[in-house]
Design brief:
Layout: E1 2-8, H1 13-24, E2 29-35, E3 40-45, H2 51-57, E4 66-73, H3 77-80, H4 82-85, H5 87-105, H6 112-133, H7 135-142, H8 147-151, H9 154-171, H10 176-199, E5 205-206, E6 215-216, H11 219-238
Antiparallel strand pairs: 1-3, 1-4, 2-3, 5-6
Helix pairs in contact: 5-6, 6-9, 6-11, 7-9, 10-11
Keywords: Membrane, Transmembrane, Transmembrane helix
Subcellular location: Membrane
GO cellular component, one term: membrane
Length: 240
C-alpha cells in the first residue's frame, strides 16, 4: 500500500535526504519519495503504519519536520480488477446473506423483517470486528473522509464500538425503534463523507474493514451504507 503525506520543514536537499533516510528505516516501509518543493512524501509499506510512528522517526512532535496524512493510493487496484479488489466484501456479504437465508429456511414462512434484522446484525458485528483488530489504523483512515470524525476525531474511535453495539442490539432484538433510529442516523452521517470522496474522485482508503484490507473508496462503499440506511428506514416505517 502507498500513502501520500504532507511533510513540512524541509528547506534543502539535505533535509530531503535526512527525512527520506529516517522514514525508510521504519520497519515495514519498502519505498520512500519526498519533495521539499511540494512538501509531500509518498511512502510504500507492506503493512499499515500509524502516523505517530512516522513522526517519531523524523524527530518526534518537537521536530521541525512534521508529517500529516493527505490521501491513500493503491496503484495496483485497477489492474487487479473489480472482483479481485472487492473480494473480501463480496465474501462477507455472501456469508452473511447465506446465514440469514439459512435461518429463514427454518421458519414456516419467510419473515423479511426478521431477515433484515439478522442481516444487519451480521453486517455490524463482522465489520466492527475488523475495525477493532486495528482500532488506531481504522481511526486514522476514517478521519480522512468522514465529516463528523474530521471535526471530532474521537468519533473515529467511538464509531467501531457503535457498530458493535448496533450488531448486538439487532441480534437480540433490543428496542427495535431505538436501534433502527440510531442506525438510520449514524449511517446517514457516514454516507455523506463517502459520497463527497467518491464524487470528488479522491483516491483514499475505505475504512469499512478497518486497516486489515486495502480497499479503495468507491460506489461499493456507498452501497454498503445505503443498504443499512434503507433497511433501518423500512423497519422504522413498519413500526408506525
Amino acid at each position: 500500500m502507498t500513502h501520500t503525506y504532507q511533510i513540512t520543514g524541509m528547506t534543502c536537499s539535505g533535509c530531503e535526504k535526512n527525512v527520506r533516510r529516517k522514514l525508510a528505516a521504519v520497519p515495514g516501509v519498502t519505498e520512500v519519495e519526498v519533495s521539499r518543493e511540494t512538501n509531500s512524501g509518498k511512502i510504500t509499506m507492506d503493512k499499515h503504519i500509524g502516523l505517530a510512528e512516522f513522526q517519531e522517526a523524523i524527530g518526534g512532535k518537537e521536530s521541525k519536520y512534521q508529517i500529516s496524512t493527505v490521501e491513500y493510493h493503491e496503484p495496483a487496484t485497477e489492474a487487479k480488477g473489480w472482483t479481485a479488489t472487492y473480494r473480501p466484501i463480496l465474501l462477507i456479504f455472501g456469508y452473511i446473506g447465506a446465514i440469514t437465508l439459512l435461518i429463514q429456511s427454518m421458519n414456516e414462512s419467510f419473515n423479511y423483517m426478521e431477515a433484515m434484522r439478522h442481516f444487519m446484525a451480521g453486517f455490524f458485528l463482522v465489520f466492527s470486528f475488523f475495525k477493532l483488530l486495528n482500532l488506531k489504523g481504522f481511526a486514522e483512515s476514517y478521519v480522512m473522509y468522514d465529516v463528523l470524525a474530521r471535526k471530532v476525531p474521537a468519533w473515529a474511535y467511538l464509531y467501531a464500538f457503535v457498530e458493535l453495539g448496533l450488531g448486538v442490539a439487532n441480534l437480540i432484538n433490543f428496542n427495535p425503534l431505538v436501534t433502527n433510529a440510531v442506525t438510520f442516523v449514524v449511517m446517514s452521517v457516514s454516507i455523506v463523507g463517502v459520497l463527497q470522496s467518491v464524487m470528488n474522485k479522491k483516491k483514499i482508503q475505505c475504512a469499512c474493514l478497518g486497516a486489515v484490507f486495502n480497499l479503495p473508496m468507491s460506489t461499493v462503499t456507498i452501497i454498503e451504507d445505503a443498504l443499512m440506511i434503507a433497511m433501518s428506514g423500512v423497519m422504522l416505517i413498519q413500526m408506525f
